[in-house]
User: Fold these one by one.
Assistant:
Number 1:
Amino acid sequence: MIAVVFSSLLAGLLALLLYQRMAYPFLWVDLIYYFKLRGYRKTLQARMQKGIVTYLDCFLYQAKTNPNKPFIIFENRTLTYQVVDRRSNKFANAFRTEGSLKQRDIVALGMFNEPDFICVWLGLCKLGCEVAFLNVNIKAKSLLHCLQSCGAKTLVVGAELVQLVEEVLPALKDNMTVWVVDHTSPSEDFSSLLDKLEHVSGEPLSDPPKVDIMSNFLFIFTSGTTGLSKAARVGHLKAIMSMAFLQMCGATSDDIIYITLPLYHMSASLLGIGGCIHLGATCVLKKKFSASQFWKDCVKHNVTVVQYIGELCRYLVNHPTVPEEKAHSVRLAAGSGLRSDVWMEFVKRFGKVKIREGYGLTEASIGFLNYTDEVGAIGRASYFNKVQSLSMPFQLLRYDPQTYEPVRTDSGRCIQAQIGEAGILVAPLTAMNQFLGYAGNNILSEKKLLRNVFKAGDVYFNTGDLLLHDYRDFLYFRDRIGDTFRWKGENVSTTEVSDVLGLLDFIQEANVYGVTIPGYEGRAGMAAIVLKPAHKLNGTKLYNHVVKTLPAYAWPWFLRIQTSLDVTETFKQQKVKLVQEGFNPDVTQDPLYFLDVSKKDYVYLTLTLYQDIVSGKTHL
Ligand SMILES: *[C@@H]1O[C@H](CO)[C@@H](O)[C@H](O)[C@H]1NC(C)=O
Ligand SMILES: *[C@@H]1O[C@H](CO)[C@@H](O)[C@H](O)[C@H]1NC(C)=O
Ligand SMILES: *[C@@H]1O[C@H](CO)[C@@H](O)[C@H](O)[C@H]1NC(C)=O
Ligand SMILES: *[C@@H]1O[C@H](CO)[C@@H](O)[C@H](O)[C@H]1NC(C)=O
Ligand SMILES: *[C@@H]1O[C@H](CO)[C@@H](O)[C@H](O)[C@H]1NC(C)=O
Ligand SMILES: *[C@@H]1O[C@H](CO)[C@@H](O)[C@H](O)[C@H]1NC(C)=O
């Protein structure tokens, strides 16, 4: 009798398991992630009860509990949590006594990656100042724009930036106090900072400011697709939530985390350094990413976790083999923007490294994490993720392919995109999900918002990204709006085309866009290409590859061979310029090629051929 009950129980259990596997194959990974998020929220709540609610609190907590743990390893120096704490106290005291800085003052910080970037920043946090991170590669004109748009009255720069600041000094002089992180000052326009540290105390401020966690923490300049950069406000809440990133990816306090990305970007300062502080882990900080040093550094410092962006991985796989690339103990790579072709090459070459791909934005609190092993997916949209208050709520909206505006019904409401249909990713604004806007630009801020989306009065942040939610609840990144063009009545995804081009052995980098031709609707595909060192363009091979792998409407009709893609900023910015220059041989010195179907080859684009195309004599 018992045996019968038992066996039918077993059969029932088996049926249940089978059902679960078929109907909900990702139940376990979803659940595990859900419990991780819940665990994280519990930790956060427990810490909040102890008064640890901000990025700075979190750092102070580690400095108190793990004072002697190495925090930053930089070149041949190791700074413990306590050392960084004391040094940032000194900066705070120096800024207060010598610079009269106080809570709410906005301070622009322009430094290359080095420990004092973090010490100065934390020092300013201790005073309650809002720090604006400057891109160290900017030119004088943008520097002036950045300073004015965020409203900073104090500027702190590293010694390398003195020359740049001198260019804009005449325009700033009366309004700006300028500090240089050095022992001496280059001229009377600058105040030196490091010599002041000798005379001030390393003790904490006696009266630390009270911080409103709903207020602004940082300004980060985002490089929009056009025009000058915008100062996005990053709130305290967003900062503390970002600190969970590395933990969610599976990093622990024992990890040694290698950070080569510039600290003025949110990924490095909030996800990377913040993630490291959250865990109480050690960070190996690099002044600048170097493909040749990357694996050597990883071996030298026993690095276990690396943080990446897509471009960085591409540089690594394009770099000649070094013995260290297989001898390291890196087990996890966490970041965003990795394309599938590079990813495959990455794991093939560099051994068993787990990749955790995330998606996040500077301006709003929305993020996904690729926590399954599905190639190409950026995250999950399962039931558990949606009900979680910590994971960020979102919607995908149906949009008009011509204008990229959400489609509205007769009553003015938006429509949810269906499963399997790409939609615009939007996130409701709530107390936990703030959008603090861009400094000094209300019109721009308002443009990122959608109102009356599902009901009167609701407000959503429009990410401008197209995502697809498939029937298994995976989310796929489809396009950043503007990264598609239309040709012969079809949509061409530029990322898809550059992925395909990137598979060829002689192509190092491909930037794909559409150019207009008189007499044609839409835009014809064009690719700016950088060849690998010591490689030549093989037109027939490229032709065959393109024809074999891409539909005719997506073929790049024009090529532009560049010696390097301008790496100062993102691909997006250069694209605008490339599109404007088009395929006119009179406008650029770069060699241009044209896809000649009759010759089954890419042929040199002469001025005569250009004129034939423009006049319609040669057809596409
Ligand atoms: C660290 O390296 C710098 C130059 O790279 C050198 O001047 C300094 O003496 C070194 N410090 C130690 C402790 O080795
Ligand atoms: C300096 O401040 C004045 C008044 O606050 C303002 O009108 C002017 O635009 C500022 N100049 C610069 C270069 O920021
Ligand atoms: C790296 O690990 C090895 C063996 O575990 C150890 O001997 C070495 O001291 C470590 N190096 C550093 C820089 O921590
Ligand atoms: C997500 O992670 C899996 C396994 O780590 C990987 O195969 C896949 O390529 C990742 N997705 C992206 C978009 O990187
Ligand atoms: C182009 O893309 C939009 C949005 O995904 C879609 O609605 C439209 O049908 C597509 N057009 C073609 C021809 O595929
Ligand atoms: C171009 O590629 C084709 C096919 O891969 C090869 O047969 C040919 O030799 C190559 N031409 C040159 C000039 O390298």
Number 2:
Amino acid sequence: MSEWEKNVRKVEPYTPGEQPDFTDMIKLNTNENPYPPSPGVIQALKETAADSLRLYPDPAASELVKALAGYHNVDPDQVFVGVGSDDVLAMSFLAFFNSKKPVLFPDITYSFYDVWAELFRIPYHRPRLDDNFRIRKTDYFQENGGIIFPNPNAPTGLEMDLKEIEEILVHNRDVVVIIDEAYVDFGASSALPLVSRFDNLLIVRTFSKSRCLAGLRIGYAIGSPGLIRYLNDVKYSFNSYTMSRTAIAAGAAAVRDQNYFEDTCAKIIDTREWAKQELRKLGFLFPDSRTNFIFATHPSCPAEQLFSELRKAHIFVRHFPQERIRDYLRITIGTRTQMEALFAFLQTYNRTIRQ
Ligand SMILES: *Cc1c(COP(=O)(O)O)cnc(C)c1O
């Protein structure tokens, strides 16, 4: 190792799902929305005057913050926005997880959490999900330096009852508790009503899944004005202009197009419930998803092999090599037509492996 390398901050980066580029592909591997953004978003993108791009954006992203505050019925000083929820989460780790005690998150969860913990040198501990992949609330009653988990959890898709989240909060008044609600719009209950009672609760959301805007990179957090102030202090110490003019305008338009958003979510929920029945008929087993994906395993076909066979047919799903879940595939809910193509493939495949 060269001398200079000894002082390099070495990290093992997060591996994002692949972004293949085939015209005929069925992309069910990164939980994107299969539908286009709302008409208002397209309009806003056209209207963001090209000549305004020579100017810096509003560092406070007020138009977007106000739209979100209105939508969630909170004050604008309770809203923080960032470049995708990954940015919001990274800022939150940096701002709130600054204790010598370990931050707690499940052993099976969004695989970026341990990467940020390593990057920022935050100690962490990962309580094991139970055998049905459920978070055990009592694991989060132990002493800690902060708590984070998604609800519903990823990649399991399972929702935790709001009552249990409340119990976790009652046991953790002295640390920041972050609930990552990336998938909450697909039929789960939000912990937002608890924000007024717990000034240490931060809810993180994204425009990438339910709002069809993964490509634009918009995420946000809602919490007490105190939490949001600390987040902004960290953001302004890092990069004042995180949100582009385009993202601010299009994001605000997406929030205003509430009917489109609700219709899109309803369609995905419908397709998901139908997909569950189809998967069951094919012999797959899976936790009951409240998200835009299903985490499925099959007793007689190894996940990795099925993953490669699907890939050859340009049907992309996600496989995680991690212990306990390497027999599972995470399948994003696409359009009905995309899912029909997936099931047609699986039916044929099922017949071959039974022979
Ligand atoms: C997709 C996802 C994110 C990141 O979303 P972006 O807004 O696209 O950065 C964060 N947390 C969870 C649990 C996710 O699934």
Number 3:
Amino acid sequence: MDMKLFSVMCCLVFFGTTVFGATTSREVRSKTLDEDEDTYGELKDTDIQKDDYYDGDEDVEEEAPEEDNNVDLRITSQPQTIVKKLGDNVRLPCLVSPEKADPIRVWRKDTEVLYQGSVPVSGSRNMKIDNGFLHIQLRDVGDFGEYNCTLILNEHDNPFVVHKVLQQEEPRIISLTVDNEQSVLDIGDTLTLNCNATGAPRPRISWHKNNERLGTEGETFIIQSVKVKHAGSYRCLADNKIGKPAHDHIDIFINHKPIVNVEKYIVNSDHKSNVELVCHVSAYPPPAVLWQKNGMNLEQNEPKIKFANERNNQRNILLISDLQEEDFGDYTCLAQNNFGRSTQNVTVVKTPVVRHFQKPHNETKDAVLMWKVDSKQPISMHELQYRKKGEPNWKTVTPDVTNATEGDTYTIKYVLTGLDPGLYEARVRSQNIHGWSNYSPPLPFEGVLAKHTAHQKSKYHKKDQKGKDQKDMSLDTPAQHRSEESSLGASTHSGSVRRSPLSMQIFAVGAILFSLLVHVRQ
Ligand SMILES: *[C@@H]1O[C@H](CO)[C@@H](O)[C@H](O)[C@H]1NC(C)=O
Ligand SMILES: *[C@@H]1O[C@H](CO)[C@@H](O)[C@H](O)[C@H]1NC(C)=O
Ligand SMILES: *[C@@H]1O[C@H](CO)[C@@H](O)[C@H](O)[C@H]1NC(C)=O
Ligand SMILES: *[C@@H]1O[C@H](CO)[C@@H](O)[C@H](O)[C@H]1NC(C)=O
Ligand SMILES: *[C@@H]1O[C@H](CO)[C@@H](O)[C@H](O)[C@H]1NC(C)=O
């Protein structure tokens, strides 16, 4: 601070005192403001100096107000950033230590002096001074800004505190960017997204992908080594509870060879009927997708052969109308881009097709088997075969044939009762006028799921782990079993009869701890 400023301040003190003496009836003091302690949206603001005492080295004559320079007077109030809306009240503290001291406080808004002690200089009707606090009713946007409270001790020592009063502002996204503007990445690259948002209070930023919330919060989102599955649309959402959250999105692509999947490997149809083959392709850059029959590319030839695609070319459909004998057989879906080519076959047949052979869901005494069969022609017979694992011969049953439930789909439910405990497998097939379907892949299941067999169950599962048909059709995953074996709770349905040695140990340790605790409390 320089000499000039200091003398200006002294003049102001003098002027203010005189003027104020003559105009005691000013409304300034009569205006009562509600004390508003609401600190919603307050943020710690670290870029404001806290104890920045002036320590200039100029020698200036002793003109300062008569204060005891030996007292170590300081401001105890911390700088605050307060977010408010028009019409709100704020109370800005400028408390000092020692509390008894009552130094002259100069309050400024930006550069304008508002108060000199309790004397209003340009402080207006919506402000008031009270015990070291400046109360403001925020009437117009000019009331937002920085408020500086400075103590006038002497020209060397003028501690101050500055509070920021910000106007509430809805969140807004300034930019959502990917590092190096590379929205196409190779497998193994690092993906870095930056979301720059404004708003007061400062908005909280969350990340979402394809409408699923990701764990990360904050301006930056990073995936160290991207895989194919990380391709997609990323969204950043900024929310500060003022107004609606703001959001923006960016699409990220990962270069890779096509991944091809068909919806059904075998499709049932019949002479003169139509058929729809569906092939899902994921690839970047966008691949060329072809359908082939006997190694020959198919050409669109409406109404006989029609291509369609959905979901941004990811779902590719081949429609064949009015099927003739030569239209049955194997079709190939082929997708190719710079990174490679992939294919999958679909077979069109007249015989029934078994689908959705499901594991029994209820833990009852009986094994309830359910599956579906597609057939354009009426089904003449269903067959269910089952055997205990390891036995050579299948037992065959023929579930009743019911009418198709939806279109050409039959739903079959069969209950196998009175099975001995053990691991079983089952397979099914169905017949129509064109012949038998293939057997479904064998479905492993457990005979007699009654509660008292829990102990044996785990033994069978260990055996099963070595078996090869541990597909999604299997009853339980080995992991579930391991945890069941090691957890004490697993034996609880069978009552307390089979308390394991481990639980005994835990019980003993518990008892010792309890007795120690009792001992200590005495
Ligand atoms: C507050 O006012 C004092 C006195 O004029 C000045 O020295 C100081 O730099 C001001 N602080 C800020 C952050 O403006
Ligand atoms: C965010 O945007 C503002 C306004 O354009 C800019 O001043 C600031 O530097 C940006 N921040 C980052 C981290 O990019
Ligand atoms: C797909 O069908 C073609 C033509 O019938 C055949 O040559 C090829 O081996 C089949 N591919 C697979 C994976 O079954
Ligand atoms: C499972 O059993 C419960 C009670 O026995 C029964 O209400 C429910 O329908 C069964 N669920 C299935 C899918 O069979
Ligand atoms: C099956 O459909 C036929 C003809 O629509 C009908 O006569 C018959 O009663 C149906 N059978 C059953 C079990 O619903």
Number 4:
Amino acid sequence: MHHFQYKGNELFAEEVPVREIVAKVGSPVYVYSHATLERHYRAFDDAFAGVPHTICYSVKANSTMAVLKTFINLGGGVDIVSGGELYRALKAGADPQKVVYSGVGKKDDEIEYALNSNILMFNVESEQELDRINQIATRMGKKAGIAIRVNPDVDPQTHPYITTGLKNAKFGITIERAIEEYKRAKGMAGIEILGIDCHIGSQLTKVNPFVDSIIKLKKVIGILKEAGISLKYFDIGGGLGITYNNEEPPLPSDYGKEIISATKDLGMHLVFEPGRNIVGNAGVLVAKCLYTKQRDEKNFIMIDAGMNDLARPALYGSFHGVQPVVNDQDGLVMADIVGPICESGDFLVKDREVPMFRQGDLMAFMSAGAYGFAMSSTYNSRPRVAEVMVKGNSFEVVRERETVEDLIKGERVPSFL
Ligand SMILES: *Cc1c(COP(=O)(O)O)cnc(C)c1O
């Protein structure tokens, strides 16, 4: 699956002992495996080898430039949700004609920036946004390529916080409304209709919700065709899940087979926006045990990483496997692994049997490549951690650990104090 494996009792990232990375870079640290990133990207790409397609990696899952560059080198595009992500992607060398721009709250300056950058298309999420893009593009003497993000009202059977394609979600436009909006868009001077888009949620472990939404969107495509509106791109979004614990998501190749068979009669160019599926299991967060304590039959393991570094357990109650960097503990203990933050929600592991970590032991939180560093913050004035990318037997720091000076960058004490 990935390149984080034991050799003897030592955890390695590819050919590098994780312990050596910490010795050089310190703890906590995110560690990414380049080989795993490449492998996962290729597996997804290969799944659609027979059909015209573009993989627009979802930048928000992990927006670190080294990660973006890895996929750009393999021919990948990007799915962005802000002007900041566009800036990163272009800096990393993304081809603007492989950039799709999603998100319900695009601001005027972000729309202008995207138009000036000549991106492929906007995934339009509301009627007012369509008008706004048209106004801005017209004023700039440009045509904005668009797809409408249709909300197909399909249940992805995942966590409510990462469900996006149900009627009550803030995302996209309903099917009925979307057809009307396409007809309106057809008459707009600043708009070029290019495609149709959906993204129904994240961490999906079954293919049928994807196929169900494709079937619904195909009806829309048929109706539009009769109205003289033909579409080139079919953007199926992201959302394919990974194994964190005992989930059994479909392999990209199986997902690919079903998507291809559901779309082949259309002859459209497929666009995908995978995030988690490609980066999730390509990264780990390494942290150090500071203290342990036992209280009322409950054990706590205090570590130097917290919810500000890896928010998913606190945010969604998510599971991350934890493995010792050197596997020499005396058996297992039922414990919570908690961070230094002054919040009871600050845990990475809750009520689980884990190795009996001692002061100073290093541990790796697995599957932390997606929505890990990207969601991290400086809450409790904790500088954000370093990131490292490993390739074979070498590694490089791809983001320096922040300093306390970085924490107050841009702050000013007003003159009246
Ligand atoms: C978050 C997001 C994705 C990526 O989702 P994953 O579950 O990480 O694959 C793709 N498209 C859009 C519009 C998103 O918001």
